[in-house]
Amino acid sequence: MKRIFILVFCLSISSCNFISKEVPEKEALLEERLQEINWSEPTRYPSVSSCDSILDKIKQKNCFFDFITTAVQERLAADTLSVLYPEIEFINVKVIVNPDATVIFEPYFKENTYESQKIDSILKVRLQNFPKIEPAQKEGIPVKSEFILPIVLKIE
């Protein structure tokens, strides 16, 4: 009985040495993960329902930008912008997609003039009730994204 006890004791001591491994520190793991993240671009770009089924990140991004450009052009094409400002062929629109999925459209001019304020008010009216846009995500967390869309007003 003593031999069995000594044998079990020796095995338990020696087996503990084989099982124990050095556990990495939280800070080291966190630092390693932070180095892996690409901070210059989102994990997932903003999207609309018609582009959600696309799995390729680049194709999904292109689908979204094609959709939003076409939707804005259609809403502005039949508006007073082309009548009031026949000299304007295109307009740059700043699009802000917030983490809560709200979308803000602003004209993007180099100079703020009275005309830019009138165009801003027309944009706000024409782009109300825009289709739902899912915000961009960074590591699964919704983030704010901004981009400039060149919108052609005169299609010849």
Core attributes:
alpha+beta; 3-stranded antiparallel beta sheet; two-stranded antiparallel sheet; 5 helices; 5 strands
The ordered string of helix (H) and strand (E) elements is: HHHHEEHEEE
Structural class: alpha+beta
- State the end-to-end CA separation: 100 Å
Helix coverage percent of residues? 40-55%
Major β-sheet strand ordering:
2-1-5
Q: Secondary-structure blueprint of this entry?
A:
Blueprint lengths: L1 H18 L6 H11 L20 H21 L2 H5 L5 E8 L5 E5 L6 H13 L9 E3 L2 E3 L1 E8 L4
Question: Would you write up a description of this structure?
Answer:
With 156 residues, the chain is α+β, with helices and mostly antiparallel strands. It folds into two domains: 2-36; 49-152, no CATH class. The chain has five helices and five strands. It has helices spanning 2-19, 26-36, 57-77, 80-84, 114-126; strands at 90-97, 103-107, 136-138, 141-143, 145-152. It has a three-stranded antiparallel β-sheet. Strands 3-4 form a two-stranded antiparallel ribbon. A hairpin with a 2-residue loop joins strand 3 and strand 4 (141-143).
